[in-house]
Amino acid sequence: MRSPHRHPLLVPALLCAFAVLAARPTDAAEGSAGRRDDGGVSTQVLRLYEEAALATQRYEAGRQEAEAQRVRAQRLEELLGRERREIAVLHKDLGRIARAQYRDGGGLPLTAQIIFADDTAELMQGQHVFSRTTLAVDNAVEKSRRAEARLAADEAKAATARRSLERRSAELAALKQDIEQRLEEARGQLQGEADASVAAGACRGAVRLDQPQQPVEGTWVTPVATYELSAGFGSGGSRWASRHTGQDFAVPIGTPVRAVGAGRVVKVSCGGPFGIEIVIEHPDGYFTQYAHLAAVTVDQGEGVAPGQWIGQSGTTGNSTGPHLHFEARVTPETGSAVDPVPWLAARGVPIG
């Protein structure tokens, strides 16, 4: 069963720094297969990882902006609701004022009011009331007109914001889907080349990739920066002759695999149940194995530093899906494995 644990290093922070470097020439005697791969597919996978990371960042930023726009749209809808209620009240006020004016003689022509008035004071008082009523009506009409104009403008603004949000979300989703599709195709091609190497029993040679400068805390690290744990040490199952001899890290094909500590590469092979594998000897006398790879980026006999990329994960050999099989051993050979989880924990690298 997989653990939901995530390593503190974030995928976007690592992937956004990925870059690629053309393969360096070497003589025919170097490398387990006597030649180096041009790194085309491997570098393409890493480049697409970088693009996917950037697209994910943009998608996340777009999602956050979309959420902010939704909040603004909700507030705008609340404002529009208040404006509609205010306009309804204004309309009621206009009706009330008009009815009152009619009852008070506001609808009677001024000449008739002069003729029928009993005295000048009464006429002036009536005109004063009429003027105030007329002013109130005019103000109410103007206020209603402004409110309706503001409501129309705000409704148009809300509609524009909704359309912009929908368009931006669709663009980001399409971009992300396109990159993920191309990445999946590149992963398949990388794995296909790895399977061909395993079938031929000959490694393609080291693919030289330019690793970004990343600070390494301590002298030991996890074999992959971000992962989910799957099969653990000592677990049983039909896939293994007896018990599982390492710790599996579930990662996509093409994920950079790192040397957990300083050491020297003592084995690079491309056949058998482990598929493409690397074994490193460390100064303390222990060995670590990295198996089911899709590509290697180091040669046998080469020294490595903690956190240095040594390959790319895959699903070669006896593997049911993309993952890294990691072992800690007391000898370079199969059968000498110890539980790698406490082994790493003793070196300041807790996982689980």
Please, could you describe this protein's structure?
The chain has 352 residues and is an alpha+beta fold. It has helices spanning 11-15, 40-103, 110-116, 120-200, 340-345, and strands at 228-229, 247-250, 256-258, 263-270, 276-281, 287-296, 303-304, 309-313, 324-329, 337-338. A hairpin with a 5-residue loop joins strand 5 and strand 6. The chain starts with 10 loop residues before the first helix and ends in a 7-residue tail after the last helix.
Helix count equals 5
Largest sheet: 10 strands, antiparallel
Query: How far is the N terminus from the C terminus?
Result: 12 Å
Task: Report the β-strand fraction as a percent range.
Answer: 5-15%
> How many distinct beta strands?
10
The low-confidence parts are: 1-37
Overall shape: it is rod-shaped
- Helix percentage: 40-55%
Spell the H/E element sequence.
HHHHEEEEEEEEEEH
Rg: 37 Å
What structural class should be given to the helix and strand makeup? alpha+beta
Average pLDDT, all residues: 77
Topology (elements, then pairings):
Layout (H helix, E strand, L loop, with lengths): L10 H5 L24 H64 L6 H7 L3 H81 L27 E2 L17 E4 L5 E3 L4 E8 L5 E6 L5 E10 L6 E2 L4 E5 L10 E6 L7 E2 L1 H6 L7
Antiparallel strand pairs: 1-2, 2-9, 3-8, 4-5, 4-7, 5-6, 6-8, 6-9, 9-10
Helix pairs in contact: 2-4
A few lines on this structure:
With 352 residues, the chain is α+β, with helices and mostly antiparallel strands. The protein is 46% helix and 14% strand.
